[in-house]
Structure formats: C-alpha cells, structure tokens
Write the structure tokens for this entry.
Amino acid sequence: MWHEATKELVAAGKLRVIGVVQEQHPERAALWLKWQQIDWPVAWDPFNQLGVKVVPKILAVQPGGLVLEDSLHPKRISEEGGLLEVMGRMAGAAEELEQPARFGPQLARGVGSDAQARAQALEPESAIAILLFDPEGLDGDALPLRLEAMRFLVKWAQGDQASARDHFRAGVAQRMLLDEEAPVAGRFQAALHSWSRALAFDPGQYIWRRRIQQWGPRLDKPYPFYDWVPLARKDLIERGVTPRVWRVALSGTERAKGGYDLPVPQIQENPDPRGQIPSDQKEHVSLDWAVAPHTGFAGPNVRVAAGTSRVHLTLLPKKNVSIEPAGGPLGIWIDLPEGWRARSSWFDLQVEGDGSVQAPRLDFELIAPPPGPPQEGAPPPSPPVLKGFVLYPVCIGESGECNLLRRDFELDLSPAR
Amino acid sequence: MSLHLLAFVLLLSLCCGPLHAHQDGELGTAEGQLLPDLELPLVSGEGTLRLRGEAHDLRPILLVTFASW
C-alpha cells in the first residue's frame, strides 16, 4: 500500500521513503522485498534499537530526526495540510547529520583494532554494533570477537540492574551466534529463555512477543509467519530471478499456519517398549532441546496451561560420528502425560545438510490440559515434564562400527522467568 | 516578566517547540520526539542507512517499520 501511495512522490524527488525491519534474519526480509518489488532502502534492526513495540508503524520524519506524525495514513501525505505541506513550512535540522550517527558502525571499530582490547572495552551498544556490522570481520577473524560480544550481552542481562530490553538483546545475540557457528547445544533454549524473561517484564512489547511466537506453537500464532516463502521463491524464479540459498532453513512451526484446531492424533506403536535397544551411554550424539512456550504465560489477557509449547530438537553428532538414516528408525518417542495432546507419540527426525554438517532436527507441538479449579491448601503444581526417548542409527569412527542407539530424556517444559 | 509576556512565551513553546528539534530532545518514535540516532545495516547486507536522514538531503522522510511475517 505504501509503496503504491508514495511511488510518484519519490520519483519526483519530493519524498524519501525508508524502511526498518524488526526481524531476526535479514535474508527473509530481503526475499520479501524482492518479491514485492520494493526498492526503498530498508535497514535491519534485529535488536529493536528503534524501540518500537508493534509493527507496522509509519512515521513522518523531518530530516534531522524530528517525528512529525506517528500514525500516518497514505492520504495524509499530499492532501491539504498533509505531510508535504507541513514539512514544506519547516526547516530541517540537517546540519547535525554532518556528524556520525550516535549508533553506527564506528562503534564496532571504536574500541580499537586489537581483538583482545576490543573485547575488554565492550559496552552494550558497542557489543551490538559488533554483532550488526562486523559479520565478516574487521580484523579478519571476527568469530571470537562476536562470541565475546554475545557473552558480554548475556552477562550484562544477568546483572542486578538488567532491564527487560537487556534480556531481549541477549536473546537476539545468542540466536544470531547459533545461526553463524556450528550448532551449540543449549544456545537456542538460552535465547528463548532470554526472550521469555524480557516478555514477562513487559508483556505489551509485541516485537519481543513475536520473536518467541516465531518458533512457538501454532496455537499462539496471530498469523502465519513465513508461509509466503515458497510462493515468493516460485514467483521470483518465474521472473528469472534466482533467490539466494538461506543459511538458516525455516523450521516447521515457522512455515505453519496459525490456528486453534487441535491435532488429530496419529496412532503409532512404541518402537522399543521394553527398552531393548542399547542405550548410548557414551553420548555419541548430543540432544539440543529448545522449548518455545505459548506466550500466554506473560500478560493478563491469555492464560494457557503451562507446558503448551513447540518443542525443537536437533541431534548433534560428536566428531567421527555420523548419522545413518538407512540403519534404522531415526526419531523420537514421547510418553504423553494423561490429558496432553500431540499429533503423534512418534516423530521422524529430518536430516539436513551433507555428511560434514549433519544435524537431524524436528519440531512438534504439545498441548497441555487446562488446569482444574484452584484448591485451597493444595501444593503448587509441579513443573510440567515430558519423558520419552530418541532413537538414532549411527556409525562411529573410521572403521564404521554402526549401531542403532537409544537415549532416554526428561524435558522441563516450564517457561523461564 | 509580565503575565502577557509569559503567556506569549508559553504559547510559542507549545506551538513551535517541536520545530526547533535538536539532539537533546526526548528520543522515541512518538510525535514530537526525536528518532534515536541510528545507522543500521541494510537487509541486503551491503551498506548502511541512517534513519534521521543524510546530510544535504532535505526531503521529508517517510519511515515504515515492519516485518515480513
């Protein structure tokens, strides 16, 4: 709508239109912009440095930064008394733009050229600048410094004076590094915990809420998040444009449509009811769990039974261990507690990547039963726990000793506070 | 200061205060506030964008903040 409404004014040089996206992954917004043929300059603001609580938000801004209107309708741009007329009567404060922005790439460089010295001189804003502006490395090898910047933001959020915003930023940094490095067990869950703490402090911050809902249960999605991606890719290919391959693939819940329909359970047989498959006592494979809670835990409006969530699991084989899907069932069995719902008790893990970067994964939805009426004197409910086991066929070492192995688990489904 | 003069100054500040924006104003995205002075990377990964505008470019700015979801 805005693109059409402003096209002529922009072409005539009367107006400048810019965008800011509030998303974790810039390549997704880049695909959408290309698909929609939007050619404004659009900035990426994953840490929500702009400080907005909802999107979309349309601002009329005077050069120099003064916000003239914060809830603009397209008609208000060129009509009598509208944006262009108001702005025409005003002198901008553009001389201040001769100086560098207070937050910008200079903060990433401003802490010196030596990686160790830079790490010691970190402040929250410079740590964020390093994560935003130093992806390839100003000093050749950026990853250690980026890890340092992430750890700094996490530690900062653990301080006594930490704000809700500090927790959100720590979550963004952790997810960002997870997407850059080889997968690290526990980091996604840590990001979700940080975002959950932030949201618990400020339930009205919908940018933060959406960051959890992106990976959360379908039941909690106000709308599908990335269901448009296949159509966008198809349309672009038909136009002769080859979309870039993403480093981070969409999870099942990011592709899912929202909805309140409950899953129709598929009856599956327990593949190892007597526990006869050998246990992986040497832990040749790490289990990386992340539980994205229904955001009803924060705020007074929606109350959802604790435990309703989207569970994400990634298998991370150790060095010299490879997953061999042809060698037997590769998946997870869950013992659904009484009254709980899921699409199935058995889920297949999806293998992605080549032999060197194997990380089978899946995500599935859990719906807890509504709690009964509170009873006086009753003990507080114990945290919801999910039990089950994972089966994976692996080959170990050069000799290629191959086995089907089992790992039992108990997963705490409580949202972080 | 006479009462009339005080009233005039008060009226002037109410009417025209936001017209004289400078970097000491309250930061935010509400009417009358100053946008945080941010230069952010472009989603394309190439280049940056300063939200308050660019020097020597006095065109009014329409800032659309959104998400592709």
In short: Chain B touches chain A through 49 residues (CB under 8 Å).
